[in-house]
Design goal:
The complex is a heterodimer of chains A (114) and B (114). Chain A is mostly beta strands and 114 residues long. Chain A contains no helices and eleven strands. With 114 residues, chain B is mainly β. In chain B, a hairpin with a 4-residue loop joins strand 7 and strand 8. Classes of the chains: A mainly beta (114), B mainly beta (114).
Amino acid sequence: DAGVIQSPRHEVTEMGQEVTLRCKPISGHDYLFWYRQTMMRGLELLIYFNNNVPIDDSGMPEDRFSAKMPNASFSTLKIQPSEPRDSAVYFCASSLLGQSYGYTFGSGTRLTVV
Amino acid sequence: KNQVEQSPQSLIILEGKNCTLQCNYTVSPFSNLRWYKQDTGRGPVSLTIMTFSENTKSNGRYTATLDADTKQSSLHITASQLSDSASYICVVSEPPDSWGKLQFGAGTQVVVTP
């Protein structure tokens, strides 16, 4: 299995622009998670989906952030408009219900907003 | 206040030496405790997972211990190698076991020098 695949690996954008991050979970996994990692705050859960349905988005920092999962093999995290404080590494992870050991992270997208 | 505290924040060790990382948590009840290794520019990778009834778990040169009474865990690295240079993150999972919120520590940055 190729694991959790995220794209792009790096993104540099100007303040005010729209940014879209993409994630392909492991085939067969039914949970998908979006995290943000910064030096100051470590890893923070933004939102997670179960069977493509958003379950908890309480970690989404503000309305500029939105996430979708149109099917079992694809999810996006969108920031519009982006701000310099959004600069971070964004991770996607997936897991299989009832199998704690299946929790797998992608390699992340490093976002820089200038 | 973070419910998972790790120490030290960073450490430097000579190749071939042993080291021990500490994790104290206040999450209660908890479902399981995990140690992750995060290489620079990569996503976290699971090293060990222990339930509250387990007190030790090994993965090659990595050995994790858990004292559920004192709410402490440690990760011991034996005969360190240059490839052990990474951030090590302690993660405590809240019940239910199938899906419970993960509480992340800030990580310990380990640098192994020749």
